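Here comes my example:
=====
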Amino acid sequence: MKKIDQSISAFFLPLNKKIKRGIYRLQGIGLQHISDYETKKQLLSFNGLVLSILLFFIPNMFVLLEREYYFLLADNTFCFLVLLFCLYLTHKNKLEIAKHVMLITTCIYIFFFCLGCGSQIGFEYYYGLYVVFISLIFTRKKMLFLYYMVALCLFFSTRFFYSKITPLEFVNSNDYSAHNMSNTFILLTLIAIVSGVFRSQNSRFLKEISDQKKIIEEHHKEITDSINYAERIQRSFLATKENLGANLKEYFIFFCPKDIVSGDFYFSANLANNNFILATADSTGHGVPGAIMSLLNSMSLEKAVEQGITQPSKILDYTRKEIINRLKKDGSSDGGKDGMDCSLCVYDFSKMKLFVACANNPVWIVRNTEVIEIKPDKMPVGKSHNNHHAPFIQHEVDLQKGDVIYTFTDGYADQFGGPKEKKFKYKQLEEVLLFCSKKTMPEQKQVLESIFHAWKGMLEQVDDVLIIGVRV
């Protein structure tokens, strides 16, 4: 007996290994074209389920042949050949096409089975199950609509043929349950193949999106952290509260950058003659480029003050020269064209005098119910098209107690908003400042801030905003 057992084992063990090796090779069809691990898993799953159905079809086809259900045999043979074709498609690295072929074949299989057996089995209601699985498989509306239409058309076509033609096969009543079970298995397995593969693919896409989102979030955090650090550096170049408080009795600063860092900035210093200088400036650009320009502009103003210059017009002339000389080193023919618009005020409180030089931005003085405008020179502090050698004009104003001096950049007036989503404009800004000029400086800042955000609403802020008010 032992010898017989050994001889049987010696025969069947190698055969079993060969069968397993053959199945593994069939299951691995198309793997040589794929390097991605997730896609390999999909393909192995797809091929494995296709092979399972093929193995089920073979005995089923013999049963149909033996019972002489030739039309149903043809339907099963068609599906069998399509499954082999799907394996060929995966071998040619066309898994996507194989999945769609499988879905279409499922519809055709149901249709022809219903056509062969008639309404006696009620197999047409499997279209409903098919639609449910399609809904789980697809997320794109176009594909959902396409397969819904295919299933719907075939369902109504089936119902139509029931009333017009007799069944092509008369299925024995004893075979109803067997046919229902076998075809239910085939249908569910066919759908399981595609839904499983599509679900796997959707999971892979979601994982890729999640991974990409994490990478973007990490990069965003790194960039934001860098910009926040840059904002701390930029803040150190702005006029300090200590310097402003030591020289101004009443003032406010409404500063609202578009981004974390800003092209707008304000500069203050004590001059060699003990007068106090306060600049409100709008550098070229906003965000990071504007912030870098603001550092250069601020340093150029500081250098002019260190040279002992006390007249605001001369300070702007010197600052413009410094900016142009610095920027022309960029190597381009347009070097030095960046710069800033600026309102530069020098206060001599002992004599109640205000000296002003303006580049593109005006200065407004509210006295009682009147707005006195100091008009700017129509040129920037930087290289302009034709007049960057022309000196800035200096204005001198006798101040009165209670005067409020406003300096600002163009961000507030240029902000879009309101019911018609139009610019706020300077005329409306003038009315607001005239209205709130009698209020305390903190109240004025609050009014300006509230009006600005109410006007902007849900719209994007278009530029950096800076308004400074000083009461004499």
